[in-house]
Design goal:
This protein is about 40% helix and about 20% strand. By secondary structure, the protein is α/β, with parallel strands linked by helices. It has two domains: about 250 residues, Rossmann fold; about 130 residues, Rossmann fold. The strands form three sheets. Strands 3-2-4-5-7-6-12 form a seven-stranded mixed sheet, with helices on both faces. Strands 9, 10, 11, 13, 14, 15 and 16 form a seven-stranded mixed sheet that branches. Strands 1-8 form a two-stranded antiparallel sheet. Helix 1 crosses helix 2 and helix 1 packs parallel to helix 7.
Length: about 400
């Protein structure tokens, strides 16, 4: 089944998107995303996929083009990073609030300024409240699998929302790994084709007003329905993960992954490419007699609050590592959301925010072991502790 290939994360995203049979692709190149669209352009030029490839002058236009095609009933794909995501924000927000399903890859990158093109998650994290489903990958295999799963989640009648498949720029986008790439027939059997039943589409024979000026009472209904779809997506994410495991033999645990958490006293929470290092740190800590575990936060929208709270039942200490910051708080954004998910339970935990990896800085094994040892030392002292910054001179 499938083919074993050695691929960068960007090529993995492109190969997976091609397997999903997109009708239209539109994207503007920006580091570190550029090779996603370049590889897809090769597929179109060489006749490997039957898709329209639209060359646009900006990311704003790219999102506008795929938005029109999605409104016409097409399956669409694009990709971006950082300032490109910022430039497309207007149609990006409109894509979700029009409830148009699609998948977009984000090779995450730090935002300017100071000027940088290096890895970070500030771009994707900063738009987490624009109504998209957002998930983060920590391997190139997961990028492939989540692009495919992303279309099934997005196009589910209970959801009908666009999906971001996010992965760390350069660390994932440009580094190579072995990947099990499914055959086209396998993906066709797993992912149904787009039909007019997927969502209302523009049709000259049956005209309707798309996005008319909307009064407050109707706007309230739109927003509530959108949030209801987000809530429903949590169940759909778990269902799709089970279906994918049955079809391809790989499961990711749904909205979160738990690693050696069953008997853990102290738990670290990771997001994206830092997870492999986190698992290594847990293994080393176990060898040193520390009962450590790890929660990999896979989806941040919808936020899996109940699953996180359940996974942390009976634990003594927690730190959450963010590769982004929440301006106005000296803490990471996913740490803040985890605190909200825990509500009163956080008072019984020793917990703190850890921030690292900004602008491509490494989050090392020793960084993670250091905070695990801090948790072990303080685990009988419940309450919030000072934010830890991984700043290595």
């Amino acid at each position: 089944m499938g083919t074993k290939k050695v691929l960068t994360g960007n090529y993995a995203a492109a190969e997976a998107a091609a397997l999903c049979r997109p009708d239209l692709i539109a994207a503007y190149p920006i580091t570190p995303q550029s090779s996603v669209v370049e590889h897809l352009a090769e597929f179109v030029h060489n006749g490997k996929i039957d898709a329209n490839m639209v060359q646009v002058e900006s990311e704003h236009s790219a999102m506008s083009v795929v938005q029109g095609a999605a409104a016409g009933g097409g399956r669409v794909f694009t990709a971006t990073s950082a300032q490109g995501l910022a430039l497309m924000y207007e149609p990006y927000f409109r894509m979700s609030t029009l409830r148009l399903p699609m998948v977009m890859a984000i090779a995450t990158r730090e935002m300017t300024s100071p000027e940088t093109i290096w890895s970070g998650q500030q771009d994707a994290i900063s738009v987490r409240d624009a109504g998209w489903i957002q998930m983060f990958c920590d391997s190139n295999q997961e990028i492939v699998d989540m692009v495919i799963q992303g279309y099934m989640i997005a196009e589910d009648q209970r959801v009908l929302l666009p999906v971001n498949v996010c992965y760390d720029g350069f660390y994932s986008s440009h580094l190579t790994e072995g990947v099990d790439l499914p055959d086209q027939a396998e993906v066709d059997a797993f992912l149904p084709p787009m039909t007019e039943d997927n969502h209302p589409v523009m049709d000259p024979e049956n005209p309707f007003a798309l996005d008319p000026l909307t009064a407050g009472p109707l706007m309230m209904k739109y927003r509530k329905n959108h949030l209801d779809a987000m809530a429903a997506a949590l169940d759909v994410i778990e269902e799709v993960d089970r279906k994918f495991a049955a079809a391809f033999g790989r499961s990711y645990g749904g909205a979160i992954e738990e690693y050696r958490c069953e008997d853990a006293d102290v738990v670290i929470m990771t997001i994206g490419g830092m997870t492999g290092t986190g698992k290594d740190a847990v293994d080393v800590a176990r060898e040193q007699g520390i009962r450590a575990g790890l929660i990999k936060l896979r989806f941040i929208r919808p936020f899996p609050a109940k699953r996180i709270a359940k996974a942390l039942e009976g634990k003594k200490a927690l730190f959450v590592i963010d590769r982004s910051v929440c301006f106005g708080w000296s803490q990471g954004p996913m740490y803040m959301e985890t605190k909200a998910a825990l509500a009163d339970a956080k008072e019984r935990l020793c917990h703190f925010s850890a921030i690292g990896g900004l602008g491509g800085a490494d989050i090392s094994l020793e960084d993670m072991l250091g905070v695990i040892r801090d948790l072990e030392r303080m685990k009988e002292e419940p309450g919030e502790k000072e934010t830890k910054w991984f700043i290595n001179d």
